[in-house]
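Before the break, one more example. Copy the sequence into your notebook; we will annotate it together after we see the structure.
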Amino acid sequence: MHFDVITLFPEMFSVLGASKIWQNAIDQSKLSLTCHQLRDFSSDPLHCKVDDTPYGGGAGMVIKVEPLVKAVQSIARDKGPSEVWMMSPQGDLWAQSKVSTTKKSLKHIILVCGRYEGVDERFIQRWVDRCMSIGDYVLSGGELAAMVVMESLSRAVDGVLGDFRSFEDDTFESGMLKYPQYTKPRIFEGLAVPEVLLSGNHGEIAKWRAQQSYNRTLQKRPDLLKDIDLLPIEDLKKTS
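Here is what the structure looks like once it is written out:
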């Protein structure tokens, strides 16, 4: 999967290189990332200005449509199925369910990171395939949101994780929260690892984990259960 990011702060994305998983995926050509400085597409050669005051008045500045269009047009779209995504609090809420569908349908995503009071609406109308939000709150720009989307998508790309079961077992991937995890020592400050995890009985361990996932979801996120249509759920309800 390839990501092109249009941003006023390309240096922010260097933090992704701190992740060993991400860097290994880059080294193995399973992922690639190119950042594009929006000011490089400004029609103002002196100040490289890309924003202006909003029509109708109001606080702040709005990113102009021309540099955004030029930036998108400059990006080659020959890397497979491709879309332009605008990071925006008004967009569709990003969720784990979108990770799997995106992985199957796209190989190339152009992520546009807004700033200030937003971007000219004409760019969104004509050039953006989808607006995407990571939550009901406002950030200073779309860069952090873009990194969240890329990080979650990178985990789904074949070969990025050393063991793909890490992705399949993730919270939300099954529709429920993940079961509790334990490692050594066996006992810490009087708290012991559940005996079933020490039994070596993989069938019983799988049942225990499914039960724990259901219980946690019921307690913490019962809203998720309404979307689950799995036969084992009825058995879990009987024993919870």
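The chain has a mean pLDDT of 89. The longest helix spans residues 202-220. Try to locate both features in your own notes.
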